[in-house]
UniProtKB/TrEMBL annotation, chain A:
Residues 1-20 have a biased composition (Basic and acidic residues). It is found in: Cell membrane. Signal peptide: none annotated. It is a multi-pass membrane protein. InterPro entries: ABC_transp_permease, LivM-like. It comes from Ferrithrix thermotolerans DSM 19514. This is Branched-chain amino acid transport system permease protein. Keywords: Cell membrane, Membrane, Transmembrane, Transmembrane helix. GO terms for cellular component: plasma membrane. Residues 1-23 are annotated as: Disordered.
TrEMBL record, chain B:
GO terms for biological process: L-amino acid transport. The lineage of its organism: Bacteria, Bacillati, Actinomycetota, Acidimicrobiia, Acidimicrobiales. CDD domains: ABC_TM1139_LivF_branched (cd03224). This is Branched-chain amino acid transport system ATP-binding protein. Gene3D superfamilies: P-loop containing nucleotide triphosphate hydrolases. It comes from the Bacteria. It comes from Ferrithrix thermotolerans DSM 19514. The keyword ATP-binding applies.
């Protein structure tokens, strides 16, 4: 019977043949793993090395730190949006909380800035835990609800009646711990950590579960995935990254107002950078943040009257015509070149 | 036949929003048994399967899985207990064949996964050759086979299937039946909701649902001897 022949492949094979097949498939799997390991290693090492050496060639460290912060934010958006499909328009809320929690840990508890930044990340994750019910919402409702939550956090922290705790709308000053070199090193660590986190999520059971959830939550739970728990993990990791990024910003700038760290454009930039580069990929958000933030800074300086128009036009073109981002575009181009080469050889 | 119940439905009332579709279903499935649930479109087969897996809530009655009342359990909890559901829905088109199978083994320890993979790949050789391909590149029939393979990855005690023949050419229906036949008598129970009577060749028992109620339950031989039912499903004189 045809079907039996097709399904029952094992009895028909000789022992030698089975061993050869197994050896070949193991070798294939081994080289695949090696390629994957190398690719992932390069994805972390190359940006970290470039940004570590960059101050020797380019003196604007604030711009370099800003790019690294945006890479981290875009990778954070990548984890919650790229892997689960939840678009967090209010992502800036975690960034602002991280910046304030870091500053207050320095001012009120005299913690070293490096430790305070970790506290900032942890407090942001804690806030994300409180905001967990938002994950019950879907699509634009979730996006709007996170935006409202970020505005609420802004209103709480910037409230004049909380002046004794947060300094309210009058801003916060941690100038006493200013360290240009220190904050740069921590920004590089944040850059590497955020990329490494995306790789770890992608390669883990969590990453597989999140991709299944993005496909269809019901089908994912039919595979035994606890949708609520796995989605919450992504939400907390994503919030912690934003909190760490906010902490690095606070230590870099040292004096800031609530409006600077709860600015909705920070969310928009992080989302656009991730989309531009390619969500769901490791390098997409890195490419997106470096290219677009670099361009944004250049256009903003040389053509300040046009920069919003030019920047907006680029975003519209990419969202409409390159929905998979730069990394997706490159992947398609490489595949086409590969099949063209095969056809020519054939 | 071993009489240990692995799945027991008692007076199950279930449906969509306020409207019940199932009106008091009683059904027992023992281990090592293959039960084919027959019924016309709208009879309540899919509703019953969805209620068993937890996609639809119980309005009344109880469902016991491996002796435990799972009426209030969520889908993933039932799956974690040893229930597996096979449908085209369960296959993720944007994941590779290998990733789909790995997802099927989601609740397993890493040490058990390799063994399960080997077993499933040995059963479905054509999937093994294309393990890196996206599931979306598979034909409808191949997706069904992947769905079965994925469901088997967790080494389930009870495997439930909703119309595994839907959308398949007769050739692929044969192939699906052939692959399922290798699973009969291996200790696990199978519940197959179908309209296609070809699946009766797999069954020990048959349950017929009409209007949300069980109108017949008995062995496959008893079913074939019921002239009225035989005529209704085979469309020929018994």
């Amino acid at each position: 019977m045809r079907s039996e022949e097709k399904l029952g492949d094992i009895p028909a094979k000789s022992g030698d043949r089975q061993m050869t097949d197994k050896g070949q498939s193991l070798r294939g799997l081994g080289s695949l793993l090696k390629r994957r390991n190398l690719k992932d290693l390069l994805a972390v090492v190359v940006p970290v090395v470039i940004f570590s050496l960059a101050p020797h060639f380019y003196s604007n460290e604030i711009l370099l730190i800003s790019i690294m912060i945006y890479v981290a934010l875009a990778e954070g958006v990548n984890i919650i949006y790229g892997f689960t499909g939840y678009l967090p328009f209010g992502y800036v809320g975690f960034y602002g909380v991280g910046a304030y929690a870091t500053s207050l840990a320095i001012l009120d508890f005299n913690l070293p800035p490096e430790v305070s930044i970790i506290v900032g990340g942890a407090i942001s994750a804690l806030v994300a835990l409180v905001l967990m019910p938002l994950l019950r919402l879907k699509g634009s409702y979730f996006a709007i609800a996170t935006l409202a939550a970020a505005e609420a956090l802004y209103a709480i922290i910037g409230n004049p009646s909380l002046k004794s705790i947060t300094q309210g709308p009058y801003g916060i000053n941690i100038g006493s711990v200013y360290s240009s070199g220190g904050s740069y090193v921590v920004a590089v660590v944040l850059l590497g950590l955020s990329i490494l986190t995306v790789i770890a999520v992608k390669r883990s059971k969590l990453g597989l579960a999140l991709r299944a959830i993005k496909n269809d939550p019901v089908s994912a739970s039919l595979s035994g995935v606890n949708v609520v728990v796995e989605r919450t993990k992504a939400w907390l990791i994503s919030a912690a990254i934003a909190g760490l990024a906010g902490g690095v910003f606070a230590w870099t700038i040292t004096i800031f107002y609530p409006s600077a760290v709860f600015d909705i454009s920070i969310s928009v930039f992080a989302i656009v950078f991730a989309l531009f580069g390619g969500v769901g990929t490791t390098m997409g958000p890195v490419i997106g943040a470096v290219v677009l933030y670099g361009l944004y800074s250049y256009v903003g300086v040389t053509q300040p009257q046009y920069f919003q128009l030019i920047f907006g036009a680029i975003i519209v073109v990419f969202v409409l015509f390159v929905p998979k981002g730069i990394v997706g575009l490159l992947g398609t181009a490489i595949n086409r070149l590969g099949s063209l080469g095969q056809r020519q050889r054939g | 036949m071993d009489s240990r119940f692995v799945l027991r439905l008692s007076n199950v009332v279930s449906g969509y929003s306020d409207l019940p579709v199932l009106w008091g279903i009683d059904l027992d499935v023992t281990e090592n048994e293959t039960l084919v649930v027959l019924g016309a479109n709208g009879a309540g087969k899919s509703t019953m399967i969805k209620t068993i897996i937890g996609e639809l809530p119980l309005k009344e009655g109880s469902i016991e899985l491996l002796g435990e009342d799972v009426g209030k359990y969520k889908i993933h909890q039932r799956i974690g207990m040893g229930l597996a559901y096979m449908s085209e829905l369960g296959v993720f088109p944007t994941l590779s064949i290998h990733e789909n199978l790995m997802l099927g083994a989601y609740g397993l320890k890493r040490s058990d996964v390799r063994h399960r993979l080997e077993e499933v790949y040995s059963l479905f050789s054509e999937l093994k050759g294309r393990k890196g391909d996206l599931a979306s590149s598979l034909s409808g029939g191949q997706r069904k086979l992947l769905g079965i393979g994925k469901a088997l990855m967790s080494n389930p005690k009870v495997l439930v299937m909703d119309e595994p023949s839907s959308g398949l050419s007769p050739l692929y229906v044969k192939e699906v039946i052939a692959s399922l036949s290798t699973l009969t008598g291996t200790g696990r129970a199978m519940v197959i909701a179908e309209q296609n009577v070809s699946f009766l060749q797999l069954s020990n028992r048959v349950c017929v649902i009409e209007g949300g109620r069980v109108s017949f339950e008995g062995s496959t031989t008893e079913f074939e001897n019921q002239e009225v039912l035989h005529k209704a499903f085979f469309g020929i004189e018994g």
